[in-house]
Fold this sequence. Notes:
Layout: H1 3-18, H2 20-23, H3 31-59, H4 74-104, H5 113-120, H6 122-140, H7 150-186, H8 190-219, H9 250-253, E1 266-270, E2 276-278, H10 280-285, E3 289-296, E4 302-311, H11 312-319, E5 327-331, E6 339-342, H12 344-348, E7 353-358, E8 361-362, E9 372-374, E10 387-392
Parallel strand pairs: 1-10
Antiparallel strand pairs: 1-2, 3-4, 4-7, 5-6, 5-10, 7-8, 7-9
Amino acid sequence: MSFEGVRRRGAAAVERVGDPAERFTNPVHEARTAAILGIALAVAFTACFTTGVLSHLIQNPPSWFAWPSRPAGFYRITQGVHVTTGLASVPLLLAKLWVVYPHFTALPPVRSVGHFFARLALLPLVGGAVFLMVSGVANVARWYPWTFFFPRAHFWAAWITIGALVVHVGVQWATSRAALRRAAVAERNPILVRATSGERRGFLAGVAGAVGLVWVATSGGTVAVLSPLSALAQRRPEDGPQGLPVNKTAVGAGTEELADDPTWALLVEGRVDTPLRLTAADLAALPQRSATLPIACVEGWSASARWTGVPVRDLLALAGAAGDAEVRVESADDSLYGRSDLNRSHAADPDTLLALLVNDEPLHPDHGAPLRLIGPNRPGVMQTKWVTRLVVR
Length: 393
């Protein structure tokens, strides 16, 4: 064969390798599989994004946002969805990247101006998705090999990623729609696609099985009945002092001796007619209320218990606060989460308690003894422990 013939064959081979359509001859590496996985990822990412932004707004509320106190267990659902869906997205993302990887090495790398920007949008999409998943998994495992503030970085990375996802959907919408339609037409001819559709379905079934396995292995932190099966759950609902999990212990907060401190007292100050100073005995002598409420952690686990204590609204009435008062709750823990705010809805709810007992027992120091805040529909980081002061606003 002449040199020119060899050159032409080589050029043709390079052209075929560079053509994404040629790379997707395997029924798994093809447009319909990519489209199906893309739809699944879009749904999962949207659920994670929506619940994540909601959690951020609850913890850092702007002036226009007022999170209600009811339904009492709604936050545990949204955060459970956020974490379990995020973890279950890991096999989805890996499968999607494996299916479309020939496009990443296609030649030529850029075929037009539009193609350039489409490929450029993949950087924040793929990079952001990988960052969110790796950092999110590390966070629920309470492993922080970085110096940045995780909630802020996670929040802004989510906005970047979802923006890139919107661009990607816009670019790929017509291609994915056409791929699904072509497959639907082709499947009317069983001679052509019976074998390939079986392989595709087998692959997608395997991905679905992996997603389901991850979900079951992690959701026991929220769904108690699945706890024995959840080997990857970050917390089990029944593990911890008095049958409740804890993230931060009294030793970790430096408050282990507070429950036995004879000088401890709760102060109620701010916009009140009568500032109050109440000892543990004073609080125990006031009318008590019990409520079954969950601790719902931002890490995805939650657990319910019966709490008994003094309703915050009763203390506000005793101090002569306005009926629409808001409250800053302060703790002996001087860390970032050693304080939280009660908006009007939460401050006025009868089940927002300063608890002295859990499951009819005095609070364990790790659960905030001598006094902790517990209220309906609140993140666990806002159920302030080791309470020392209420500042009425």
